[in-house]
Amino acid sequence: xxxxxxxxxxxxxxxxxxxxxxxxxxxxxxxxxxxxxxxxxxxxxxxxxxxxxxxxxxxxxxxxxxxxxxxxxxxxxxxxxxxxxxxxxxxxxxxxxxxxxxxxxxxxxxxxxxxxxxxxxxxxxxxxxxxxxxxxxxxxxxxxxxxxxxxxxxxxxxxxxxxxxxxxxxxxxxxxxxxxxxxxxxxxxxxxxxxxxxxxxxxxxxxxxxxxxxxxxxxxxxxxxxxxxxxxxxxxxxxxxxxxxxxxxxxxxxxxxxxxxxxxxxxxxxxxxxxxxxxxxxxxxxxxxxxxxxxxxxxxxxxxxxxxxxxxxxxxxxxxxxxxxxxxxxxxxxxxxxxxxxxxxxxxx
Length: 349
Ligand SMILES: *Cc1c(COP(=O)(O)O)cnc(C)c1O
Ligand code: SF4
Description:
It is a single chain. 34% of the residues lie in helices and 15% in strands. By secondary structure, the chain is of the alpha/beta class. It has one domain (1-349): TIM Barrel. The protein has a ten-stranded mixed β-sheet. β6 (231-237), α11 (246-257) and β7 (260-267) form a beta-alpha-beta unit. The longest helix has 14 residues, at 2-15. The chain is globular. The N and C termini lie far apart (41 Å). Residues 132, 134-136, 139, 141, 176-178, 208, 237 line the site of iron/sulfur cluster. Pyridoxal-5'-phosphate (PLP) binds at residues 117, 119-120, 123, 125, 173, 343-344.
């Protein structure tokens, strides 16, 4: 549905002369209209204004940002809504908790070029941009020094050279920030550079944009995907079945139809999805949308996110419940990230 309506806009734009003012794609307008003021979020959802001072203070550490379409999937008047909990700044974020650090996964130690991380065999990860469509309060990169460290600056050249020079790299992962907050022109600039690297087989995109801003999956993006000759994998980030609106499901179908394999990673979050029924419903809903559950991550211990942590024992109990009730292919792998390890670390249960 989204793809079709945007397609007609695109066609009109392309018919215009070069000098005509270019209208922003609908997704960029929607992104620019995202809610960033805690007072507005609280008013729109009819929440208790007493939440405001803490929200304002926490938003100074890591700003509030949430697209209106995502807010529309939250329940009015419910401060415990599982989607709201992911994005509402809370006073608890300013607590210093022992064991919670600014760079919990040791990202900076694996840097091979500006914005390029090479931690695992055969895979290089690009911090494509610092921008995201949404700010998740538990984000492990909430303290990442994006200013100096994005691969899209300098037209991708240092990143492309680093990948070109290491023939063991089979897969390029676009991460961030959210790589789909880059516009189609910049994505094309990158993918054209990649065509000259013969050892590369797959392009993987780690993105939450199709979930929080399904408008992003428009005709222009689908055209770009069609132009990419590498195998295409998208790892989405959905934590709760309520995130999968009709628009999101339509966007996922469009991606699948354009040859993109869809996987999902979730983070196990207290008060969001730390319940066997929610996780079972999530796996079922993902599969309905053509998305394969991939990882369930234990929280990365980033400063300001301690109140989201679910203990390993609880996680293991949840996993046993999933295993009992779901087909094996709908049970995500429970993992944690341990600095210095050569892969994500499976957690036995
Ligand atoms: C998570 C991650 C990957 C991808 O790991 P997979 O297990 O293949 O999903 C690659 N590089 C870095 C730096 C990562 O953090
Ligand atoms: S979308 Fe991903 S990178 Fe962006 S804030 Fe959320 S968790 Fe962090």
